[in-house]
Write a structure and sequence with these properties.
two-stranded antiparallel ribbon, five-stranded antiparallel β-sheet
């Protein structure tokens, strides 16, 4: 089931998400994960934090390998479910042009760590580590920002942020303002 994605202005996007208790990883949790993947793929996006669908818990789904053939069928998938992520190592810097499903049609150059290693829990309750660089590292950091109540719009100047909000309101993109920081 495709879930509604919260848009800038929804106060839940500014709330720090609570850790997932491993006892919460049950059939309902797994169904939510499946729905989040379906939502992310249909958007389309490469990552989705639970808070973006109104669930204030620290987990995300990611798939940076997801691509479609010209006929619209999937070419590749490398899905990751990351529960209670913690960055345990990072290095280098990169500027990445980031978009966000909760900030429609906005692209912001963001300074990020080039390489990141996460410690997290998987759906089977096992502690894991995953290292990524470039897009994967950026996706880790972007989704963790969501879990901490941060959005890419925060990197804009006040003038550009105001212009973006006016554009959202004018286009009826679901902005529920005011921006909460």
């Amino acid at each position: 089931m495709i879930l509604p994605i919260l848009i800038l202005g929804d106060k839940r996007l500014r709330t720090r998400s609570a850790p997932v208790k491993l006892t919460e990883v049950d059939a309902n949790f797994r169904k939510l994960v499946d729905d989040m993947f379906e939502t992310m793929y249909s958007a389309p996006g490469v990552g989705l934090a639970a808070v973006q669908v109104g669930v204030l818990k620290r987990f995300m789904v990611l798939d940076i390998a997801y691509r479609q053939n010209e006929d619209g069928k999937l070419k590749a998938r490398e899905p990751h479910v990351i529960i209670n992520p913690e960055i345990i190592n990072s290095e280098g810097e990169i500027i990445w042009e980031e978009g966000c499903l909760s900030c429609p049609e906005l692209v912001v150059p963001m300074k990020r760590k080039k390489k990141v290693t996460l410690k997290y829990w998987d759906l089977e309750g096992r502690e894991q580590q995953l290292a990524g660089e470039d897009l994967l590292a950026v996706a880790f950091q972007h989704e963790i920002d969501h879990m901490d109540g941060k959005l890419i719009v925060d990197a804009l100047s006040p003038l550009k942020r105001d212009l973006y909000v006016k554009q959202l309101k004018k286009e009826g993109k679901g902005f529920q303002g005011p921006i909460v920081r």
